[in-house]
């Protein structure tokens, strides 16, 4: 806090890939390039998905088959889209690893516990069956535990996101759902994206809750949402704003997840979506991996052999899979018309946003409007009232002073001003 009693701004350091470079490629072209790179990298590093290989150098995970579970989700989408059939060499090898993980004694013990990891045990059994590797003994055990209400996972007091996740896993795998667990559409009404969230104050963990609820409610873009009057427009705008916020921050993980949501909701020909795909394509390593927020090239440079390989896998696999999932869903939509590039979104840095505000104020242009709400979010969350004030001035110049998000940001600025 400053001597005047005002909060000090807190802008996080930007990763190098957050800086844009040149005109973005066409959306479908960038997405296809990302998917090709992802598949090549996953194929080359498949051994690290095996729990025993992971644990040679990386911390044991609570659900040991967690990375394999994520991988099978991608294998399913690739098979669904026709991009890569489940009996092709790479998916077959992935399924071999997953079968071995499910056959390990600790998997059955974990399933019997019916603890907080119970839904993930059921999901692995279900995905193996969907992809042609049924596990009848494990399935029978899981169905019996479900019917007995083991763990109480379906009960109404459980968090909505966990309940919709469980229902999605059960429906996708053909498990009979317990009586206390409503259908997906009903559960979605209790989840964050259906509750008109306030984008100005949405945290990172809440944004993940929003993306995952949309994954389950739409089956990764395979079915439409059931929404009420006015909800689709509000949700589309929420996803667009959040995409721009995390794109501006260089957060590749959430950029990928929000691109998937945008595709699932039918967003087409949008300059921000095009810039999002360009960011993923630009951030890829030469080997095709998409680095996570915790990946540090300087740390990798100091490692050799298996230690280097383990660090690279552990710090890249999740974001690489997220990018692959988004690209696989995008590929199901075909090339599409695409969007004109549009003005470049500023990075989440005070001076760049000041520059944007000055341009928008002195030469107002409708092309600046899509950036307005995301920049207000960035300023509010950085608690930078001086820069926020400049963006609010630009909002007035653009004729958007009465927009709800502008009014809410103005009220925040007023409350923070001594």
What would you note in describing this structure?
Helices cover 60% and strands 0% of the residues. The chain is built from 20 helices and no strands. It is globular, with a radius of gyration of 23 Å. Helix 8 runs parallel beside helix 10, helix 12 (252-264) packs across helix 13 (271-283) and helix 12 (252-264) packs parallel to helix 16 (317-332). The chain has 418 residues and is mostly helical. The longest helix has 19 residues, at 231-249.
Which key features would you list for this structure?
418 residues; mainly alpha
In short:
This protein has 20 helices and no strands. It is mainly α and 418 residues long. Helix 11 runs antiparallel to helix 12.
Low-pLDDT sequence parts: none
The chain-level mean pLDDT equals 93
Please report the distance between the alpha carbons of the first and last residues. Answer: 13 Å
Cα-based radius of gyration, to the nearest Å: 23 Å
Order of helices and strands: HHHHHHHHHHHHHHHHHHHH
The total of helices stands at 20
Describe the sheet with the most strands: none
| General shape | globular
Residues in β-strands, percent: under 5%
Binned, the helix content reads 55-70%
